[in-house]
Amino acid sequence: MTIINNSANLAYINVNQAIEKLNNGELVAIPTETVYGLAANINIGGAIDNIYKLKGRPNNHPLIVHVHQNFDVEKYAKVNYIAQKLIDNFWPAPLTLVLPKTKYISEYITGGQNTVAIRSPNHILTQEVLGELNCGVAAPSANKFGYISPTKAIHVYNEYINHDMKDIKLSILDGGDCEIGLESTIVYINGDNTITILRHGMLSINELSALVEVKEKPEVKISKIENTPRVSGELLSHYAPKTNMSILTQQQLINFNTVSIGTESFILCFSDTFHQIKLNCENMRDEYITEYIKMLSSNPNEYAHDLYDTLRNADNICQSKKISKIYIEQIPDNIEWIAIQDRLNKASHK
Ligand code: TXA
Ligand code: MG
């Protein structure tokens, strides 16, 4: 096996260097409030091409265009009354709008569709970069296709340090931990001035429906319908660790056969459950238990913030110690947890 080490192709940079590199058609991992994005200047075809190559993403999966909060969105999209209302009330925000595109957005970015997904991210460094660039950047989450989205700069670094870079250079603008930790809410503006949520995020239905009418998403696979938007998060398996993962109820975890912990299984659960499982782990040292059973917050915002980092760490431990299974506790069935539920379902689907 050849060991690849990409330190020559990976570098940390500052805001000015990020602007320069994006202007020169290089890829830059940018921080946002949701997750890190793998950004390229939308006016440089070769740079967009490199996003698909580096991520290993099929090129009919459209990218989100990110713009500065004062950018004239009309340049890239047809902005109707409802879209304008959402922009005025929320942006910069974890809210992506799918709108009819203009000629300035190539079909290469939109996967051949006549709509563009566009948002203004709420992160000070990325706003600075976008303000200077004076054009949009296309950026999917900076993970490799199908893997967990990065919420720290080091996640991006670790993702590509041993990866075949295909001679592509990637620079990372470190903007700290992503505040929200889950990808943006994506909405489609319907012809009748209602909206449909294509992907749930931590900007909630309640916040949106205070302003506009939100329609239920049809219970069909979007990718199978002609003329409807394709959302790659629609794939059943996505955001997934390499280790097989299953969702268990609190009761199932409390009854869990503790002998397998740390050898065959790894557990992620709420603190109540943690303490109950611990009572069953009679002969285990505390350090052993806390290495293989991790607690997640019962506050949905804190949970979302920590989830991907916790999953990456769990996955790394499982891969290096040959632990075959991650068990994660079922979360509450209510609207505050809907985006998290969506990601857990996809991460646990094989
Ligand atoms: O929070 C986020 O949205 C992050 C950060 C980096 O901004 N980005 C992100 O990008 O999650 P990505 O590529 O991992 O997911 C974007 C989703 C994809 O599922 C894609 O299919 C969908 O947006 N999308 C893009 N353009 C679309 C369009 N024209 N119609 C419908 N869906 C679209
Ligand atoms: Mg993604």
Secondary structure: helix percent: 25-40%
The CATH architecture of the largest domain is: Alpha-Beta Complex
Strand order of the largest sheet: 1-8-2-3-7-4-6-5-9-10-11
Structural class: alpha/beta
CATH superfamily of the largest domain: DHBP synthase
The low-confidence runs, each spanning 5 or more residues with pLDDT under 50, are 219-229
Order of helices and strands: EHEEHEHEEHEHEEEHEEHEHHEHEH
* N/C terminus separation: 27 Å
> What count of domains describes the coordinates?
2
Radius of gyration equals 21 Å
Structural topology:
Blueprint: E1 10-13, H1 15-23, E2 27-30, E3 37-41, H2 45-55, E4 64-66, H3 81-90, E5 95-100, E6 115-119, H4 124-133, E7 137-138, H5 153-161, E8 170-173, E9 185-189, E10 195-199, H6 205-209, E11 214-215, E12 244-248, H7 250-254, E13 265-269, H8 271-280, H9 286-292, E14 293-295, H10 300-321, E15 325-329, H11 338-347
Parallel strand pairs: 1-8, 2-8, 4-6, 5-9, 10-11, 12-15, 13-14, 13-15
Antiparallel strand pairs: 2-3, 3-7, 4-7, 5-6, 9-10
Helix pairs in contact: 1-4
The structure holds threonylcarbamoyladenylate and magnesium ion (MG).
Threonylcarbamoyladenylate binds at residues 32, 34-35, 37, 61-64, 94, 96, 98, 110, 113, 115-117, 121, 139-141, 183-184, 186, 198, 229-233.
